[in-house]
Amino acid sequence: MKLSSRKSLLRTLISVAFTATASIASAQTAAPPNASFADEFAAWQRLVSSNPAYRVAAPDVRQPAADPVPRPATLADARFLFRLRNDPVTRQSSFQAGRLRFSDHRAWLEARLSDPARRVRLWIALLVRPDGAALRIGQVRFDCDVRNRAEISIALAPRFRGRGHATPLLVRALAKAPAMRVLARIRVENEISQRAFAKAGFRRHGAVRPRPARHVVLLWRRGA
Ligand SMILES: CC(C)(COP(=O)(O)OP(=O)(O)OC[C@H]1O[C@@H](n2cnc3c(N)ncnc32)[C@H](O)[C@@H]1OP(=O)(O)O)[C@@H](O)C(=O)NCCC(=O)NCCS
After folding, report:
1. CA-CA distances (angstroms) from residue 93 to 1, 66, 154?
2. Burial class of residue 139 in the structure, from the number of CB atoms within 10 Å of its CB (0-12 exposed, 13-18 middle, 19+ buried)
């Protein structure tokens, strides 16, 4: 067998093993949707530290094979989240397109993380390598309201877009959704995001809304 074919076979085997074990490990270690921050963080730590399958070999991060895993954000993620928030494409896709200052962003994050009501649930999307090292690739956020409903938003770092990560990440995050109904408000022109949400089980709700910018509402219901 040629060296290049062997390499390609090896990569395929690693990818298959890694994908399967990541799904199993995630299911085994998932904290319940109403878990505390500490429970959620502990579940994520168990995922990366206890599964021997993660110690096989590192996949090529330029061609990631495994799906991203959400873990709760901490204050140590402030810089990463700040860069993601100020990225021009992220700002273009949001309803608040202005640039933020780091000090304001950090204060916002600190307040959200220490809110006892946990009205904002912020998850960091990780690609976890078999050796346990993890790469931050994006974020998913739930904003809860009082009617057992939450609004979800997602953003991936520029180099990880267009690789099919959004849908599996949304599916995993929704398993931890803090509400029975989750809605997404997506700008009309953001077809990429609309497709990713539709594949994750969201359905269009109502007509195009004109404000604060033309957008559609997509809805997801637990168990639907
Ligand atoms: C929106 C976002 C989360 C989507 O994640 P992603 O991993 O890049 O999306 P995917 O790779 O799964 O692609 C989703 C769909 O769009 C298509 N797509 C992806 N990139 C594309 C591109 N540059 N041009 C055209 N179609 C594209 C994919 O083919 C896929 O469609 P398909 O399933 O019919 O093949 C990500 O692009 C992002 O973070 N964008 C900036 C922030 C943002 O827009 N957030 C959403 C706010 S609601």
Report:
1. 48, 26, 10
2. buried
Task: Pick the residue whose CA is nearest to atom 40 on ligand 1.
Answer: 155
Residue 168 CB partners (closer than 8 Å, separation 6+): 67, 68
Q: What is the pLDDT of residues 26-62, one digit of tens each?
A: 433 445 555 555 666 666 666 655 544 433 333 444 4
Instruction: Measure the CA–CA gap between 79 and 173, rounded to whole angstroms.
Output: 22
- 139 and 155 Cβ atoms separated by less than 8 Å: yes
Q: Which atom of ligand 1 has the smallest separation from the CA of 199?
A: 33
Q: From start to end of 99-159, where are the E strands?
A: 120-128, 134-145, 149-156
Q: 192: CA distance to ligand 1 center in Å?
A: 4
Whether omega before 168 lies within 30 degrees of 0, making that bond cis, reads no
Set out the domains of the chain in order of their start, with CATH numbers. Answer: 3-221 (3.40.630.30)
Q: Which of 43, 39, 69 lies closest to 129 in space, CA to CA?
A: 69
pTM exceeds 0.90 = no
For ligand 1, atom 19, name the residue with the nearest CA: 162
Number of the ligand 1 atom closest to the C-alpha atom of 193: 1
Q: Which residues line ligand 1 (CB under 6 A)?
A: 89-90, 93, 153-156, 161-167, 186, 190, 192-193, 195-196, 199
pLDDT digits (tens, 9 = 90+) for 162-198: 999 999 999 999 999 999 999 999 999 999 999 999 9
Task: Give residue 117 CA to ligand 1 midpoint distance, Å.
Answer: 32
Q: Which two tokens stand for residue 12?
A: 């395929």
